Amino acid sequence: MSEDHHKMERENDDGGGRTKGGIRTMPFIFANEITEKLAVVGFGANMISYLTQQLHLPLTKAANTLTNFSGTASLTPLIGAFLADSFTGRFWTITVASIIYQIGMVCLTLSAVLPHLRPPPCTGDQVCQEAKESQLGILYISLLLTALGSGGIRPCVIAFGADQFDANDPKQKTKTWNFFNWYYFSMGVSILVAVTVIVYIQDNIGWGWGFGVPAIAMFISIVSFIFGYPLYRHLDPSGSPFTRLVQVMVAAFRKRKLPVVADPKLLYENDEIDASISETGKLLHSNQLTFLDKAAIMTEEDEPMNSKTPNLWRLSTVHRVEELKSIIRMGPIWASGILLITAYAQQGTFSLQQARTMNRHITHSFQIPPGSMSVFTILSMLTTVTLYDRVLIRVARRFTGLDRGITFLQRMGIGFAISVLATFIAGFVEVKRKHVALTHGLADKPHAVIPISVAWLVPQYALHGIAEAFMSIGHLEFFYDQAPESMRSTATALFWTSISVGNYVSTLLVTLIHKFSAGPGGSNWLPDNLNKGRLEYFYWLITVLQLVNLVYYLWCAKFYTMKPIEIRRKSEDSQEKSGIELATPV
Fold this sequence. Notes:
This protein has helices spanning 3-11, 26-44, 47-54, 59-75, 77-88, 90-113, 133-163, 170-204, 207-227, 241-254, 318-336, 338-345, 350-356, 375-400, 408-439, 458-482, 488-516, 535-559; strands at residues 281-283, 358-359, 450-453, 565-570, 576-581. The chain has two domains: 3-237 and 326-570, Growth Hormone, Chain: A (Up-down Bundle), CATH 1.20.1250.20; 241-325, no CATH class. The protein starts with a helix and ends in a 5-residue tail after the last strand. Strands 1-4-5 form a three-stranded antiparallel sheet. It has a two-stranded parallel sheet with strand order 2-3. It is mostly helical and 586 residues long. Its main location: membrane.
């Protein structure tokens, strides 16, 4: 074991002989993630209502504003992950980002409370006044601050929570996979509260309280998270992962004319300089992307001044070359998750608008707010996660012998297939909704309530929740497991980046369809009056795109190879043992 590893173990002892981390840290870590989701979902689930009813934006502009914000909030994790992995560490990145998020929430609350920061309410049959540029500017600044805050919270909370379990200990490694399930479960509970309690407050009490309650909850979580500082395992940042990736590419390019070596044992290795980025194990040579192996070929020009400090812009170790290979191999699987998010994004835009036109009464005096329809997504997701963790894994273990039941690639594939079914059904439900509107002479009345139960939308919402329980958690497991250990925040950020691109693709699709489906009299597939549109065509277009994506994913998964790593395992007497996990096709 390296001296750096001994140092890290000493630093992660609480002074009383007990190792830091473990299950006792979860309440503090989950509190931060739960309140972040309470805030972002609390206004995100119903934001389309705020933009159209309070700021009086057209439907397509409001939908694109919402998906652009979601896309940006899911892109900023790359920045937060880079800072955490390179300089600040995960704890301080989460803390500072949470404070920035808090400021954004306060600004958003003020914009909803102060009358001059939003347009006057509509009265009678007059044309509603759309929000001024200055009023929209306050909104955008608030959303930008929350997006920047999310960028530091989202990639780091997941990795920081998983860091609390020692990957060298087989007993704790099993808990890591349970952590992902229960992380998503706790996040789902938070979202459930957001789409019920918070949305109800927004619709029935006021948007000031609707934004203010999550802001107060966020403040409490920051205090709670900082309070748990003495209990956490803290893994020091190991320098910029992007610099190491670029160094490998530069070294390989410089030696592009050299032949690939036949024996991988001839490639350069240096355990000492790799010690800080291989605490849990050293990556071994793989036979893919052999061009990059040239970066680890030592020539006479590469002879270091001493055995410890080679010029890393000319000579890389096998471990560093394999870091780059791991990231490249993950790329196609990452890309496959984009269209699922594009399909999922419609629940907060057009599906919500469908719900607004339907009979939402549960009792004579109570009706479901449109923004609360996603409660069916969350309930189905929570139910699926619980059954998966308590039933499916145990049954699958008997057939597969895997601790997690099925591989994360298989789990993702199931999620993709269910998502295809969800959008396919959504198209037929829209056909039914419009038929009822036409039958009752309500097609020309976009604000009239159509005599059809909102329960018709439940299947598509529920199926999206089941798909998320399989695909999204599998995606997270995939990124954390297959990423080099020094890049786990960065790799987790790739999960949020796929969400970002998925939302941007949704914006692009809506914009293109709005433009190219335009007909005489301003008609198109996605008008403000959905009764006159062709929303079902939009759903079926997404279904076809997802079918193509499913075939692409199955092809990528078939040829994907797990990273090969020589790992250190702890025996019962806590002495370290070595073992090798070979690269095996999935």
